[in-house]
């Protein structure tokens, strides 16, 4: 377990919704002595109004090492399937995990305005209710 992987997923206090949403992510970081912008590819695997789990396609060992320190802030952009809900946020990596060949980042959203946070929460509740009604 790395230094930022302190809490277990079972200790969550927020409702998480399984999703598959595209996401754009980037951060500025120093790798091998050079500071550059790094872009990550992937999709959101689940979401709450305070954080997201991202399945990352191109997490190299060098980038993983930098992110595992928990010091870099990600610039994040994604679209919630609701009208006019494009989310632009900052995120802090709170854990990194590997399941088989897949790598995941747990990211805390750190600068969401209250209105966007409420819209994400309502989207999650609506999807949970819709899913329960369909069963």
Report on this structure.
- Mean pLDDT is 87; it is low at 1-10.
- The protein has a six-stranded antiparallel β-barrel with strand order 1-3-4-7-6-5.
- The protein has a single domain (16-134), classed as Thrombin, subunit H, CATH 2.40.10.220.
- The chain is α+β, with helices and mostly antiparallel strands.
- The longest helix is centred in the C-terminal third of the chain and has 21 residues, at 114-134.
- The chain has two helices and seven strands, in the order ββββαβββα.
Ranges with pLDDT <50 over ≥5 residues? 1-10
Looking at the chains present, what oligomeric state does this protein adopt?
Answer: single chain
Q: What's the average pLDDT?
A: 87
Strand order of the largest sheet: 1-3-4-7-6-5
N-to-C span: 38 Å
- Secondary-structure-derived class: alpha+beta
Beta percentage is over 45%
- Which percent bin holds the helix content? 10-25%
Largest sheet, in brief, is: 6 strands, antiparallel, barrel
